[in-house]
Design goal:
- The structure is a single chain.
- By secondary structure, the protein is an alpha+beta fold.
- It folds into 2 domains: 5-77, no CATH class; 110-325, Sandwich (Thaumatin).
- Helix content is 17%, strand content 24%.
- The protein has 6 helices and 15 strands.
- The longest helix is centred in the N-terminal third of the chain and has 17 residues, at 81-97.
- The radius of gyration is 22 Å and the shape is globular.
- The termini are far apart.
- Residues 1-32 are annotated as: Disordered.
- This is Thaumatin-like protein 1.
């Protein structure tokens, strides 16, 4: 099928999932992946491309729709008795798997809300780590002032960053001057971003069941970033300063017109052990702050500024719910 279908959930759920045209029919596309993602974001639903022939993402489509049904208790009051029993059984099994108990309402997923407070568009991206699966959303566009949710499993580990100065060439290849992941498409699909890029890093349900999050400038800086949570007692962290305006000339990443669009790490520029914390500097006792890492540290004290920094302010509380690009 070369078209795209928006499936409405049961009444009370609204639009929940959009299934894209079969991924193995690339030559017969009627709508691009980028248009599909934008359409899904407009209607507040998830976007997945699947193929009955290769079975890619078929199960995932059903899992995501079932998850949405489970998240709406009123749906359990409607439909057939058999349907209710199946939903209840699946919810209980999911809760037991996640340690929630048969009656306890275990955490099935978390949601990151990405907000663009910059005065220019950004293209947020995600990369999973620690053996956790790719998120259903690995890249999308976000206009100034807009917000967008990213669902994630409760034990997810990975990073989120913003790409800037992005465009699509006449041949249809998508790329960004800052934070590009090299896939030629808006979705990063498991690729990391090219430095310099400001990173929001997460390990959920980590040591002792705690959620860890931090902001890192180890790979350089491209946009201000703030990680916040609405949970009482949990601290915000990030880098609210525009380091591009403070960046030493030798570290500056510039666009063709001379605009500074990022501040590179000294390791990336000079490739020396003392900046990369390698060789004889490969431990915290020998790898110390340098004149360059102090530029990042003075601008953004809460953020990691070089590879072996001892960071005593690492957040070990409830996972955050909002990441913002701060316009200064």
């Amino acid at each position: 099928m070369a078209g795209r279908v928006l499936t409405r959930g049961l009444e009370g759920v609204g639009r929940e999932a959009m299934r894209g045209n079969e991924e193995n029919e690339e030559s017969d596309r009627a709508v691009s992946e980028e248009e599909g993602i934008a359409f899904a974001q407009e209607y507040g639903c998830l976007f997945l491309e699947c193929s009955a022939r290769t079975r890619a993402n078929v199960v995932k489509c059903f899992e995501e729709l079932a998850q949405k049904i489970l998240e709406v208790p009123s749906l359990l009051e409607e439909g057939s008795t058999v349907g209710k029993k199946n939903i209840l059984r699946q919810r209980q099994e999911s809760q037991r798997t996640l340690g929630g108990g048969g009656d306890g309402g275990g955490v099935l997923s978390i949601t990151f809300t990405i907000k663009n407070n910059c005065n220019f568009p950004i293209w947020p991206a995600t990369l999973s780590g620690g053996g956790t699966p790719l998120l259903t959303i690995t890249g999308f566009s976000l206009d100034p002032g807009a917000t967008s949710p990213i669902p994630a499993p409760p034990n997810w580990s990975g990073r989120i960053w913003a790409r800037t100065h992005c465009s699509t060439n006449p041949a249809g290849k998508f790329s960004c001057l800052s934070g590009d992941c090299g896939t030629g498409a808006v979705s990063c699909s498991g690729n990391g971003g090219s430095p310099p890029a400001t990173l929001a890093e997460f390990t959920l349900d980590g040591a002792d069941g705690k959620d860890f999050y931090d902001a890192s400038l180890v790979d350089g800086f491209n946009v201000p970033l703030l990680i916040e949570t609405d949970v009482a007692g949990c601290n915000a962290t990030g880098c609210a300063a525009d380091v591009n305006q403070l960046c030493p000339a030798e570290l500056a990443e510039r666009a063709a017109g001379g605009e500074v669009i990022g501040c590179r790490s000294p390791c990336l520029v000079f490739k020396e052990d003392k900046y990369c914390c390698t060789g004889e500097y490969a431990n915290p006792n020998t790898c110390k702050a340098t004149e360059y890492s102090m530029v990042f540290k003075k601008a953004c004290p809460p953020a990691y500024s070089y590879p072996k920094v001892e960071y005593s302010l690492l957040i070990e509380e409830k996972a955050p719910e909002e990441i913002s690009c701060i316009s200064l």
